[in-house]
Design brief:
Elements lengths: L12 H15 L4 E6 L2 H11 L4 E7 L21 H10 L7 H4 L7 H14 L2 H11 L15 E6 L7 H9 L5 E5 L11 H12 L8 E12 L2 H8 L1 H21 L3 E6 L2 E6 L2 H14 L7 E13 L2 E3 L1 H12 L5 E4 H6 L7 E8 L6 E7 L2
Parallel strand pairs: 1-2, 2-3, 3-4, 8-10
Antiparallel strand pairs: 5-7, 5-8, 6-7, 8-9, 10-12, 11-12
Helix pairs in contact: 1-2, 3-6, 9-10, 10-11
């Protein structure tokens, strides 16, 4: 976290390689698999070349051997010699996530993620140290050591990475003897976004096998929320104003999910799919957001069901999810419909319902008794 001084030699590759060895010594690790992300891929490769006896394998992700070795790295960046760029970086570090559209295009407009990443910047490194590291990554070159690497090497790269072109990863892999190159789908540069395929590839590379975990089955309360007449409203407002309305809608839903401890599972244009650990909180959340979106000139329909679902990582699936979606599709403007299971589970909560009759749910066996939340 300390700011660098002119005498510090900030971010030298050899210093970072020494850091790895020192850390391994400290924790008593004689030999390990080393992974490097983005510019730290070069650090991992240099460690493998200089300490093969301590390197079981090396994995690099979204990395490159030299700045601009086969194409421009960081195409958003001006000439690193221009002081204005580094001054801009230092001045804005930690205020808001910079260049989200390059590093995480799938999360552009996600205010929660942008706030989280800005906080991560502030916690990770000081502005002065950030500038020192950027100077290093814009100048480093480890191409000459690649043919000397004699440990198993895996190179992973996203197909549409906008920060480090995939050609850089291919070029790197071609110059490491016996390296395995794997192209991954997606455009997000940061490895913690859409990482499932990468984890599987790394596990198979290091252990020779992949996990095929059985889904975790549990009783889950699911909630589906959709904007009523969204197509008509979008046509009335135009693309730009409708985008602003959608962003405000997302913010309202996420605020209420946080308030009632719901978990966002998926979004699809004008709809949200979320889960809760109990139906009372789901209904309270639905009621709050139904009232809140009126200020945006919107109405929503909501469906809630509690049933057995399959959970694997962040995904939730199964018949319980299908039932929740079908219940939501039957709701009218400003209406919250729940299944009989939900109504039975919240007895004693003070919530009031009225009978909404029996319905057939598309793709679901039998007829289902639904109830409308009144209060």
């Amino acid at each position: 976290m300390s700011d660098r001084t002119p005498d510090d030699r900030p971010g030298l590759l050899e210093d970072r390689v020494r850091d790895i060895a020192t850390l391994m010594d400290t924790v008593g690790s004689e030999r390990a698999a080393i992974m490097g992300l983005s510019e730290t891929g070069a650090v991992a490769l240099l460690f493998a070349a200089t300490h093969p006896e301590r390197t079981r394998a090396v994995v690099v992700y979204g990395s490159y051997a030299a700045t601009g070795s086969t194409g421009p790295i960081y195409p958003w960046a001006p000439d690193p010699a221009e002081a204005a760029f580094l001054e801009h970086l230092e001045r804005n570090w930690g205020r808001a996530a910079m260049y989200i559209e390059m590093f995480a295009p799938s999360l552009v407009g996600d205010e929660r993620f942008e706030d989280w990443f800005a906080k991560l910047e502030r916690l990770a490194v000081s502005p002065g140290a950030a500038v020192a590291l950027v100077r290093m990554l814009l100048e480093m070159d480890v191409r000459d050591i690649l043919p000397a690497i004699r440990v198993p090497t895996l190179v992973l790269h996203k197909r549409d990475d906008k920060v480090v072109p995939i050609e850089e990863g291919r070029d790197l892999a071609e110059h490491v003897p016996g390296a395995k190159f794997v192209e991954l789908p997606g455009a997000d540069h940061w490895p913690w976004i859409g990482h499932e395929e990468a984890v599987e590839e790394i596990q198979e590379f290091l252990t020779g096998m992949r996990d095929s975990p059985e889904p975790d089955r549990a009783v889950v309360t699911v909630m589906f929320v959709d904007i009523v007449d969204s197509t008509r409203r979008a046509a009335e407002l135009g693309d730009r104003r409708w985008t602003d309305v959608l962003e405000s809608f997302y913010a309202v839903v996420r605020r209420e999910l946080d308030r009632y401890r719901g978990r966002e599972v998926d979004t699809a244009g004008d709809g949200f799919f979320a889960t809760f650990d109990g139906p009372v909180r789901a209904i309270r959340c639905a009621t709050a957001l139904t009232e809140a979106v009126v200020k945006l000139g919107l109405q929503v329909r909501t469906g809630i069901h509690t049933g057995e679902c399959e959970r694997m990582a962040a995904k939730v699936s199964g018949l319980g999810v299908v039932i929740g979606a079908r219940v939501g599709a039957l709701a009218g403007p400003g209406e919250i419909l729940v299944s009989r299971t939900v109504q039975d589970l919240v007895v004693g909560s003070g919530l009031i319902f009225e009978d909404a009759g029996e319905h057939e749910l598309k793709g679901v066996p039998d007829r289902w008794h639904l109830y409308r939340v009144v209060k």
